[in-house]
Amino acid sequence: MIEPFIYDHWYICAWREELTTKPLQRWILDQPIALFRTESGDPAAIADRCPHRGAPLTSGTVRGEALECGYHGLTFDKSGKCVRVPGRDSVPPTFRTRAYPIVEKWRFAFIWMGDPDKADESKIPDYHWSDDENWSARGETLPVNCHASLLRDNLLDLSHAHYVHANTLATDAVVRVPIEVEERSDEVIVQRRMVDIHPSPFFSRVLGDFDGKVNHLQVVRFLPASNIIIEVSVSSVENPEHKAEIRVMNGLTPATGRSSHYFWSLARNMHLNNDSLGDWIFNANRNTFFEDIDIVEQQQVLLEKAPAPEHETLFHVDGGVNAGRKLHARLLAEENSSAD
């Protein structure tokens, strides 16, 4: 089932370095957004549609603290107010476009697509690993042709790694060991504790061509509306001090009902000065994401074109998926109720 969007939450809309005085169009929740930085350095997010004749404001130019439409020169500040109409001394107060709260934090820019009066910065998800000096982080944005909920479900059930990522992240234990699911008012936590197992090819390399047994802890946190943080700790059974810590941050921002912006960043707290290993870790994870994307994009096509099964078949590995869906449904109902 394709889920409706939740609006009263923070979504990653860009990396900080993407915000410049050159306007950037980015679709978020089926809306075109003009993202830019004013000449004084402030981030801005306004509807990318001039209220005059509907031209994209991102075809225009930043002038000082405002964005000038490239079609007829109407100019809008970061609050959405029109501050200049060529050939007129005054601007009618009705000349404006919608503005969205935008905050820069943790190397990202976050946008609030709902009621601006509810935009609480304390609710921005914690991605501090992405710019913590004790961690080394690297990431990118991947365009994905599927609804963001399919990406969320994929990450809340990591048992698929045994099959989809057979040559990198796979271990028999990821299928054999049950998950623990904790449901909170604003978060879902899925844990899998794999004890005394052979490491995956990926962590064998990260630990230094390690061939002993390890204890492997996965913690997957779903933070609505569309954020997944994966915390992984792998340590040698014989020497617990020989370990690797990884954090994978996933901003699964819906672009439209059938496409998403996948903002991801992987952080590690070991081998910080080993650039070649860092490159290998980044590319290895990037390749696993492409394997995931291939699956979820195929899902999207079938959801759109093929008849749905009479009943969805779910089993024990879907505990986190079910909890994530339930939390989304509750928050959606609460948002709709408050709007009535």
Short summary:
This protein is of the alpha+beta class and 340 residues long.
Commentary on this structure:
By secondary structure, this protein is of the alpha+beta class. It folds into 2 domains: 10-122, Rieske Iron-sulfur Protein, CATH 2.102.10; 138-339, Naphthalene 1,2-dioxygenase Alpha Subunit, Chain A, domain 1, CATH 3.90.380. 22% of the residues lie in helices and 33% in strands. The strands form 4 sheets. Strands 11-17-16-15-14-13-12 form a 7-stranded antiparallel sheet. The protein has a 4-stranded antiparallel sheet with strand order 5-6-7-8, with no helix packed on it. The longest helix is centred in the last third of the chain and has 31 residues, at 275-305.
Mean pLDDT: 91
From the helix content, strand content and strand pairing, which structural class follows? alpha+beta
Main β sheet profile: 7 strands, antiparallel
Task: Name the helicity range.
Answer: 10-25%
Find the count of extended strands (DSSP E, 2+ residues): 17
Widest sheet: strand order?
11-17-16-15-14-13-12
CATH topology of the largest domain: Naphthalene 1,2-dioxygenase Alpha Subunit, Chain A, domain 1
Shape: globular
How many structural domains are formed by the residues? 2
SSE order, as H and E? EEEEEEEEEEEHHHEEHEEEEHH
In the CATH scheme, the class of the largest domain would be Alpha Beta
Q: CA-to-CA gap between the ends?
A: 24 Å
Low-pLDDT residue spans = none
Q: Provide the β-strand percentage band.
A: 25-35%
